[in-house]
Amino acid sequence: MLEAPFLEFRPAGFAWFDGLERDNSKAWFDAHRDIFEAEVKGPLTRLLDEIGAELGGAVKIFRQNRDVRFSKDKSPYKTNTYGVVSGVGGGSDGLYVSISSRGVTAGTGYYDMAKDQLERFRIALVEPDSGAAFAARHSAAIATGLEDRANALKTAPRGFPKDHPRIQYLRMKQVLLMQTLDRSEAQGRVPLEHALSVWHRAQPVMAWMGEHVGESTVPPEARFRR
């Protein structure tokens, strides 16, 4: 049972990000921590809890602190706050929701696919029927306003022709369907409706990914060895 429903992200929440972008320091964050808890983290948690209750899945809010160990940018805090509802519907898909000074971004997909996932993805793309089905579903999703942040290769992957009819998909290293709701439109329960809409519009593509790609069997420590 929900402790409280999501009501809104108030202007004070978006204004908090404006301030953080101007002064990304521990002193500023500590001085405005109460606003962060009340106007950012609290409403985002309620939004994700409500989605988790409707779709099924576990909610996680990520830490605001950045990992600066290997970064030249030593700014201590992320300029967005985000969380996920994972294992939605008992499957491997998850729904990502982020709030920032821009607005509210929602998305789902397969982030930074492992080697075995990329192999299955590309094999399915070159098969006539499954490849055509992905292209059709992906095009339909994009036509609804979703954006694919594919992090694509600059050229064809090894072993595939540069002039393949589905080369734009073969170059993809991830399939992430996302959309940002501008802060001027993020009023009342619209952000919740936006996140659910993104989820449902992405499902034809995610169903294809689940059937032809699925989860990785590569151990976590070896996932980034390409």
What does this structure look like?
- The protein is of the alpha+beta class and 226 residues long.
- A hairpin with a 7-residue loop joins strand 2 and strand 3.
- Helix 5 packs antiparallel against helix 7.
- Strands 1-2-3-4-6-5 form a six-stranded antiparallel sheet, covered by helices on one side.
- It has one domain: 2-Layer Sandwich (BirA Bifunctional Protein, domain 2).
- The chain starts with 10 loop residues before the first helix and ends in a 14-residue tail after the last helix.
- InterPro entries: CHP02453, UCP028451.
Please provide a brief summary of the model.
The chain is 42% helix and 16% strand. The chain has 7 helices and 6 strands.
Average pLDDT value? 93
Largest sheet: 6 strands, antiparallel
Strand percent estimate: 15-25%
How many distinct domains?
Answer: 1
Tell me the CATH superfamily.
Protein of unknown function DUF1054
Please report the first level of CATH classification, the CATH class: Alpha Beta
- Counting DSSP E segments of at least 2 residues, the number of strands comes to 6
Percent helix, as a range, is: 40-55%
Oligomer class: single chain
Task: Give unreliable regions as ranges.
Answer: none
Count of DSSP H/I helices: 7
SS class: alpha+beta
CATH topology group: BirA Bifunctional Protein, domain 2
Pfam family, one: DUF2461
InterPro entries: CHP02453, UCP028451
Task: Tell me the layout of helices and strands.
Blueprint (H helix, E strand, L loop, with lengths): L10 H12 L3 H6 L1 H23 L2 E4 L18 E7 L7 E7 L2 E8 L4 H12 L1 H16 L3 E2 L18 H4 L4 E8 L7 H23 L14
Antiparallel strand pairs: 1-2, 2-3, 3-4, 4-6, 5-6
Helix pairs in contact: 1-3, 5-7
